[in-house]
Give the backbone structure.
Amino acid sequence: MAKYEREVSLNNDKPRDISIAEPVVGSIIAVVFLILIHTLFDYFGVWRIENGNTEVVPFVDNEYAAYFVTFTTLLLIVILVINIFKFVHQRWTVSMFVISTVLSIIGIMILYHMHENRELWNQDFMDGLLDLGFFESTTSLMYRVTDGLWTFVSEWIFILLIVLMVIGIIINGYRTLQRARTSRPKKYKRAPLE
């Protein structure tokens, strides 16, 4: 009687679609931002250090600080979970794409919710910079440039992040389709009975 040996494969011979570095770096960045947002949120703004005194003009209105931290934490957790799935699967399959897309849509909903809350941003940000002496007057060129930049960032940062997440979904869908085309199951002929 012939003895058959079963070959154990850990799929290490198959090429990976997702580099291990991508989810590892993404996870490290998400964890660092989580730590920073929870430990140094009071310093989330423009600093002025003079004669040993530190003053901060915050980006976010103090009344909405807890709101901002909560939703930013949720968003970073969603990004962290996506990276964990990428690390575990390492290949773009249909199920991986569906999981990634659902989590990305949750992230998009969080970003949209934050975008809709206009009071989130510090309405007195430019006045605070003026009071700290960053600008000579409201008519100076630097003040106008900074005011335009602040308006752009406060109105468009979340939209830009939503667009980047949508582009990520499209790229992941393309990778999944490419993987499906290149890894179609082969048809084997049956061996004749002897």
